[in-house]
Specification:
By secondary structure, this protein is of the alpha/beta class. It has helices spanning 3-11, 14-23, 72-79, 101-109, 124-127; strands at 48-52, 85-89, 114-117. It folds into two domains: 1-30, no CATH class; 31-127, 3-Layer(bba) Sandwich (Glucose Oxidase, domain 1). Helix content is 31%, strand content 11%.
Amino acid sequence: MKQNIKKIYEIASVATICTALFKKGLKNQFIQGLSPLNKNISKMLGLAYTVRYIPAREDLNLIDVFKDPNHPQRVAVEECPRDYVLIFDSRKNPRAASAGSILITRLMVRGCAGVVTDGGFRDSHEIKNIN
């Protein structure tokens, strides 16, 4: 994101941005019902890098799939560009654990601007204390 654009978004309210998008014909460009784990962070800003989860088949989603370095979750964590926000679309299912403290810490170390999910996080008590 260009620095001049970023500065504009840093001072704009979410309502103002949503109204501007609405005027451009983009409706419902936000996820309802979200709340920050870390209440001390005032605003998160970055372009979106999105991962969409689909329901897992119990016969195919064995624990071994998570050892694969090409697993979509691992690839997303490693490919999410610096200063982007990683968005996990979990179909609003809180049982879909989008990530845990290890992957969130990895994203932070890699320079990710933040993480959003409409599902759940494992280790949320640890994630909220990551600085």
